[in-house]
Amino acid sequence: MSTTPVLEARGLTKRFPGVIANDSVDLTLNKGEILAMLGENGAGKTTLMNMLYGLYHPDEGEILVNGKAVKMDSPNDAIAAGIGMVHQHFMLIPVMTVAENIMLGVEETRGVLAKLPMLGRLNRRAAAVRIKELSKQYSLDLDPDDYIKDLPVGIQQRAEIIKALYRNADILILDEPTAVLTPQEADELFAIMHNLTKQGVSIIFITHKLKEVLKVADRIAVLRNGKMVGTALPADATQASLAEMMVGREVILQVDKSEATPGDVVLDVKDLVVKTNRGQIAVENVSFEVRAGEILGIAGVQGNGQSELAEGLTGLRPIESGHIQLSDRDSTHFLPRQVTEMGVAHIPEDREKHGLIMAYSIADNLVLNRYYQPPFAKGPVLNQEVIDQNGRELVAEYDVRTPSIYTTAGSLSGGNKQKVIVAREFSRPVKLLIANQPTRGVDVGSIEFIHNQIISQRDSGVAVLLVSAELDEILSLADRVAVMFDGRIVKTLPIAEATRERVGLLMAGSET
Amino acid sequence: MASSTPNEVESKSFRERILRPLAVPLLAVFTSLVIGALIIVFTAENPAIGLDKLGKGYWGMFEGAFLKRNGILNTLVVTSPLILTGLAVAIPFHAGLFNIGAEGQFIMGAFTAVLAGIYLDLPPVIHPIVVMLAGFAGGALWGLIPGLLRAYLGAHEVINTIMMNFIAFALVSFAVRGPFLDPNTSSVQTYPIQKTAELVRISGRFHIGIFVTLLVASVVYYFLYKTTWGFSLRTTGHNPNAAKYAGIRPRQQFVLSLVLAGGLAGLAGSLEVQGLTHVVTTGIRAGYGFDAIGVSLLALNNPLAIIPAAFIFGALNIGGDFLQIRAGLSVHIVSILQAFILLFVAAPSIVRYLYRLKVSGGVAEGAPVTRGWGG
Ligand SMILES: Nc1ncnc2c1ncn2[C@@H]1O[C@H](COP(=O)(O)OP(=O)(O)OP(=O)(O)O)[C@@H](O)[C@H]1O
Ligand SMILES: [Mg+2]
Question: Any idea where the domains of chain B sit in the sequence?
Answer without folding.
Answer: 29-366
